[in-house]
Structures are given as C-alpha cells and as structure tokens.
Amino acid sequence: MFRKISLTAGIALALVLGVLTGLILGEGAVPFVRPLGQIYLNLIKTIVIPVVTLSIILGVVSLQDVKKVGSLGLRTLAYFLCTTAIAVTLGLTLANLLGVGGGVAPAEQTEVQVQAPDFAQTIINIFPANIIAPFAEGNMLPVIVIAIFVGFGILLAGERGSRLVPPLEALSEVFLQIMGLIIRISPVGVFALILPVVAQQGIGVLLPLLGLIAVCYLAYGIHVVLVYGVSVAWLGKIRIRQFFREMGKPILFGFSSASSVGALPFNMEATRRLGVSEEVSGFVLPLGTTVNMDGTAIYQGVCAIFIARVFGTELTLVQQLSVVLTSVLASVGTAGAPGSGMIMLAMVLESAGLPVEGIALVAGIDRILDMGRTAVNITGDAACSIVVQAAVRKRQ
Ligand code: ASP
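^ thats the input. predicted complex w/ aspartic acid below
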C-alpha cells in the first residue's frame, strides 16, 4: 500500500502528521524526533559536496564543446548567467520589499549567530589555502573554486586528462543516485523537522509559509513575463503570445512533474515548432537543463531572506551578495530533478552564514515551490534557445 503513495503525497502527509503530532504531544516528543531530523539534514549536507563538485568539474569539461560551437556557446552561457543573476536578485528584492517571513517569533535556535564577514574577507575566503579543508568543513564557495580549477586542469591536460572524465561521470551518477535516495526519504525528514518547530512555537509558525509561497510565485511570474517575454520578443523576434502558446505543454509538464529532465523532450518539440534548429536546441536545451535554473535561483533568494527573518536576523548586503553568487553557482550544480534545489539551498544558507536547520521550515512545502521553479527553469532554457537561434540567423 505504501509503495502506491507518491513522494509528493508522502511529503504532504508527513507534513500534516508532523504538525498534528507536534501539537498533540508538545515538547515532550521533541527529544525523540529531533535526532531523525538531524540525521536527515546531515545526509543532505554530506551529499551536497560531492554532487556539486562533480557537476561543476564535468560542467567545465563540457566547455570543450562550447569552444567547438564558438559564439553559440558563449551566447548561451552569457544568457544563462545573466538571467540567473537577475532571477536571484529579483527573488531577494521582492522578499525584502514584501517582508517575507515577517511576523514570526524568532525561532528557538536563535543562538546560531549569523556572522557578517566584511567584504574583502568574503572574497579572500573564496580562494582556499588548502585543498582538503573546504571539503572537510563543507565550505561551499572554495569547494566550487577547486572544482572549477580541476575542470580546467582536465581540459588543459588534453588526452591524458580526458581519461579521467568517464570515471568522474560514473561517480557523478552514483552520487546523483544517492541524492535520489535521500530525496525519497524526505517524508521522514519532513516529519522529524517540522514536529519540533510546531511543538515549540505553535501552529502560528506555519502561516508565514503561505506568504513564502505567494512571494515565490509572484517572482516566478514576473521573471517569466519580463525577462523571458521581453527577451524572446526583443532579441528573439518572436511574438510573446506565440511563445507562451507553444510553451504550454512543456510548462505544464515541468509544473506537474517538477523535473526539468522529464520535460526536456516536450521542450525540444515546442522550441522546434518555434523555429529553433535541431543544432541549437540540441545544444542549448540539454545544457540548460543541467546548468540553467532561474526558478531555483529565485526560490533560493526568497528562502534565504525568509529563513534569516524567522531566525531573527536580517541579511547584510555582503551576505545577500554571497547569496547571489552562490545561487548562480548552485544553479549550475542543481540536477534537473524534483527536490534537488532544496538540497542546494543548504549550500546557499551555509555560504550566507545562515543555519542549515532553516531548511526544516521550508521542506514541508518544497514540492509546491518546486513545481513553479521547474516551470520557470524550462521556460528559461527555451527562451535562451530562441534568442541564440536569432543570433545565429543574423550571422548567416
Ligand atoms: N526540480 C527542479 C528542476 O528539475 C530543480 C529544483 O529542485 O530546483 O528543474
């Protein structure tokens, strides 16, 4: 019977059960359940490092193809990076303006001090003095820098370096599978994480989650209409209505499955009908599915502000910049599969000096946020393919 329950339903059920049990049993149940939640968070923290490291190394190695496709690749990367930076900035701005997470009594764990390092130190810290330490400490930004260097090292080592690629791909697949397992036990994690929160702070803590959902979806909508709508019309020379009409199927599929990878075939078909050549869609869409995640970046920006507020602090400008930087990089490391953006949120929180425990607050509603962000992610890939196609046409 249990096998028939989908993961989404399992998580929703776990959320409701966690809330009810927390309300009924109160603080007495907390010591028994908290370790489970801690184990779940530890698993997330453990998996995030190898997954990010390997995807970034392999991402850089795939730049080999970018070189081959020349300006096509550069335009694609430029579009991906700019729109993702806009996305996370939009998320942060709306979350700040609309006061997401306000009105909640600061969570119990406020003793977790949020450090606000100064700007120069933040930059220096990105460059590790030691190759092992950032991995041991789970310090994301230097880990990313090391991964980028290893990727370029492999490229520069040519033939001999390329021998490393197949084993790294295999290893990456292994860790992605492990990540899939961790996502599968999310119902247990969600139950164990939400119970102590509700037991200690009462049901009122859940209300701001509605605000969080509203702000995320508002940002998703603005980004899709303004950034994608304008770029396909202005740079891609395609009517906005035509774009969204053709994109209906992939968007709906992405929304209901929360998987960019699953929506890829639909996206390919739709963009082809919008006049994108096989050469361009074959390059841009698979690459976008793995590295371009604007919806995920918006979600991470909004959640960072939300979690900071609930923990009773405000993010400084330097911390918000660090959220922008890590979210852009995290979107490269996020697999196009359900729930992976939440795992990457751990890395964004860590880099901003926020408690990773904050994930507990948003984990229960992650699927609702994931559906929207996946729809945004795939629309971004399609918009990019149209813009790149227009540039290619112009050159011919
Ligand atoms: N589910 C998203 C996707 O497939 C990734 C995420 O969790 O943010 O695009």
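Residues 2-395 form a domain with the Proton glutamate symport protein fold (CATH 1.10.3860.10).
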